[in-house]
Amino acid sequence: MARQAISFKYFVPKLSYANNGQLYNWDMQDFLDYTLMHRREIRLAVPLGDEIADFEWPDVAYDEVNQLYRFRLSKLRSKNIPARKRVNTPKDDIILAEDEFLGEFNLLIFVPTTGVLIVQSNFYGLTTKQTELALTGMRNEWKRAINEEEDDMGLVSLDPIPDERAIDRARNAEIYRSFKLRCSNVNTFIDQNFNSDLLSAAVHQTDTLQGHNIEISVTMGGQGSRNETLGNDDVRAVIDDIQYLRQQNFDVSMHIATKQDEEHKVEFIDLISPVYRTNLVLEIEDRTTIGSEYLYQNYLELNYFDADIHAQNTLNHLLQRN
Q1: What is the full DSSP assignment across 76-101?
Q2: 66-70, 127-131, 137-141, 223-227: lowest mean pLDDT where?
Q3: How many domains does the chain divide into?
Q4: How large is the average pLDDT for residues 285-310?
Q5: Which residues in the chain belong to E strands, given as ranges?
Q6: Same domain as 112, residue 42
Q7: 102 and 75: one domain?
Q8: Is the pTM of this model over 0.70?
Q9: Domain shared by 144 and 170, yes or no
């Protein structure tokens, strides 16, 4: 058995059309009800360059007790295929038939009462952008099936639910493992006063060199204890500067890896657009694929209804604030 960390991000699915610049909430309930009532009757495979996004028909379900829809999307690939290998023996190539692929899976959960889409992160699965493209193509196919095809079918986007509390967690953390920041067009804020000696020196040296952009990455690396930290006061000064510049509409960004204390795991926070996310750790048997039902039930227990995390209540609170 191996322990595997799994994270979930939270979005509101939106629709946009070419003839206006507005975004509309997309209530996915009708689409998902159709997939439940018409299993495999429409083709929901969407080409994504050399890969394919596919709808996993066996995994779509409606949880009547908790009033949640769940389904899985897969990313199918047929390039850069690994080989089977035993220790101290030659490799054995995996030969795929013309209609076979390797699949990576993302669990998605739709909350009809709030219009929230919960997306499992998978390093090898669909990215957020690929998920948007996949859902756009799948929605278009559904619209054709119910005879609602239009000249402009619309594009699906996933609007992240911001978590301003993440900025507070970053500011109040006891341990800073690393951060990376970027500033564009530094000449536009060369006259600003900075709390951080690091940022002040970088901006002025870049201007002196007639440069335009800055990228700085500072990390503890692999040396020493995992609970060692960068200088807390210095990192917080950089955070304050980046936040101030962003409030003045300058083009800056900063990502930071923090630990609240020695007992907590590392959290990666985007200080400009902090996205609400939750995490869980599962025991997974070696050489097996995580089952959809197993992952879903553990998400409910360890995230959605967990006494500490209670994502359901947190979501309602964040949606009210935004």
Answers
A1: EE-SS--EE--TTS--EEPPPPTT--
A2: 223-227
A3: 2
A4: 88
A5: 2-17, 20-25, 46-48, 51-55, 61-63, 68-77, 83-84, 92-93, 102-111, 116-120, 155-160, 175-183, 214-219, 252-259, 267-270, 277-284
A6: yes
A7: yes
A8: yes
A9: no
